[in-house]
Specification:
four-stranded mixed β-sheet, single chain, 0% helix, globular, mainly beta
Length: 109
């Protein structure tokens, strides 16, 4: 698991045994925290903390639901067994693409 911080935000990542995760945060000066935790195998739970609190859970069978608990609502549903795309409403746009069962790329603009 690899975490890359492109601003004053804080990125925390934990290693995933059978999966690789790359998180890039290039948001503005808002203090943010990205946490990725491996639950079991390729299943993962991610929590993003900033102005808005977002919780994403990747359940078995690659079904993913992401919900933003703040004013801006965000829902991500797995398109296929290995591809998922999520778009957040406000200026901050979050896109997640699961390239394979073992590779997850998250980009926060």
């Amino acid at each position: 698991m690899v975490g890359v911080d492109g601003s004053t935000a804080l990125t925390v990542s934990s290693e995933m045994p059978e999966a690789m995760m790359v998180c890039v945060d290039v948001s503005e000066a808002v203090m943010a925290m990205m946490v990725g935790v491996d639950v079991c195998g390729a299943v993962m739970v991610g929590v993003y903390v900033s102005e808005a609190v977002m919780v994403s859970a990747d359940v078995p069978e690659a079904v993913t639901v992401v919900a933003d608990v703040s004013e801006s609502m965000m829902v991500v549903v797995d398109v296929s067994g290995s591809v998922m795309v999520g778009v957040d409403a406000p200026v901050d746009v979050m896109i997640g693409v699961d390239v394979t069962e073992a590779v997850l790329i998250c980009l926060k603009l």
